[in-house]
Amino acid sequence: MRILMLSKACVVGAYQRKLEEIAACPDIALTVAVPPEWRDERGVMRLERAHTRGYELVVEPMAFNGSFHLHYYPRFGQLIARLRPDIVHLDEEPYNFATWHALRLARSKIPDSGRHGAKVLFFSWQNLLRRYPFPFSRFEHTVLQQADAAIVGNHASADVWRAKGYAGPIHVIPQFGVDPEIFRPHPLPRPDGHPSPLSRREALEEGGGAGVGGEAFTIGFAGRLVPEKGVDILLRAVAQLPGATRLHIAGSGPERNRLQRLAVQLGLHERVTIDTLISSTHMPGYYAQLDCLVLPSRTRPSWKEQFGRVLVEAMACGIPVIGSTCGELPNVIGDAGLTFPEEDVDALAARLRELMSNPALRETLAARGRARVLERYTQKRVAEETVAVYRSL
Q: Distances in Å between the alpha carbon of 55 and those of 17, 33, 258?
C-alpha cells in the first residue's frame, strides 16, 4: 500500500518517529512531504532530520509560508504523478487551501493508470464549531464532501465535523505520540556532571517540601507565549509560593516582553527564567530539570486547548503535571496529574503547594503519568492506529 502524507508538522524531528513506526508496519510504503521550514508567531521552525529510517522524506516548496489558511505546495501534483499513491494523508485542517488544493490533485485522473486518483483523509484538531468566510467555507465544504476518512485529535473535534455535515468515518487518534525511549526518566546529574545513582524516588523522599535532591522546587512551562496559554496565570500563582521555588519558561511568541515585565512587577525576576524556543530533540533534557510541569491554558472565543502535547512528553519523563480544565487537558491527564479551574490563580497556587509539600504524591503521579503514556500515547500506538485507518480504506 503506497501512502503519501503531506505534513508541515513533521518538520519537527521528534514527530518523525511516528513516521518510522508507520513505515515499519507490513506492506506500507510511506512517503512524507514536508516544507523546508514553517513560520508562525514563535519564529521559524526549520526542518529537523531526526528520524528518517524506512520511509522517503521529500522537501517540497511551500507558497505563502506562515499563512495558516493560505499556504500550499505548488509542486504537489508532480509528486502524486511520480508516486501514484493509494492513499493521500493530508495532515491539515479541512478549511485550509492546502487541503483543498491537495485533495483536488489527489482526486485527479492519474496519467497512464486508468484510474481516478487516490483515497484521501484529512486530520483536524478543531474543537470549536466555527464558520468561515468564503473561500475557506468552500474549501471546507468540498473536503467534507469528498474525503474518504478523517482523523481527529480529540472527541470534541469529531462532534464539530459531524455537526458540519461530514458523513464519513471519523477516527479519534492523537496527531503524534512520544517515543518512550527518548522521553523517559533520566538519572539525576551529580555536581561533577556524571549521572547520579540517586533515583527520582529517593531524591523526592530526601527533598521533602523542596525540589529534587533538596534543591529549589522547579516549575516548568513549555509552549507558545500567547495569551491563551495562560503563562501570566502561572506567574501570579508562583508569586504566592515560597522563595525557594523557581520557574523555567521555554518558548517564544508575542507575549514574551509582557511576561518579563509582569515577572518584574511581581518581584519574581530572580526566580523566573524565560528561555528561547528549545528544539524538540532537546526537550527531554529540559523536562529532566523540573519537579513539575504546568499548562495553565485559558479558553478564548476562537480557541480552546486541543490536546496539550507537552503534558504527555513530561508524563513520559516521569515529571508530575498540572493542567487547567481548558478543552481536552483533563482528558489527557486523567488520574495521572492534577487539574485546576482555568483562570483560577489561587487554585493553581494551592495545587503547586500540594505537590511541594507531598513527595509521595509526586512519586505517585510520576509513575501514573509514565504508565498512562505507555498505554495510550506512544508513537508506536499512534502509528498502529493510523495504519488501521489506512487498511480500512
A: 11, 11, 43
Least Cα distance to 212 among 220, 223, 222, 200 occurs for 200
* Backbone angle region of 175, left / alpha / beta, with phi > 0 → left and psi within -120 to 50 → alpha: alpha
Residue ranges, the chain, pLDDT below 50: 114, 190-209, 213
DSSP state of 228: G
Name the packing angle between helices 231-238 and 345-357 (round to 10°).
Answer: 60
Domains and CATH numbers, the chain: 2-177+378-392 (3.40.50.2000), 200-376 (3.40.50.2000)
And the C-alpha cell for 240?
Answer: 504566592
Give the span between the Cα atoms of 86 and 115, in whole angstroms: 11
Cα(326)–Cα(340) distance, rounded to whole angstroms? 9
Using one digit for the tens of pLDDT, what is the confidence trace for 194-247?
443 334 444 444 444 455 545 689 999 999 999 999 999 999 999 999 888 999
pLDDT, tens digit (0-9, with 9 covering 90-100), for 383-393: 999 999 999 99
Query: In this structure, are strands 246-250 and 218-222 parallel, antiparallel, or unpaired?
Result: parallel
Query: Whole-model pTM above 0.85?
Result: no
How far apart CA 79 and CA 95 sit, in angstroms, is: 22
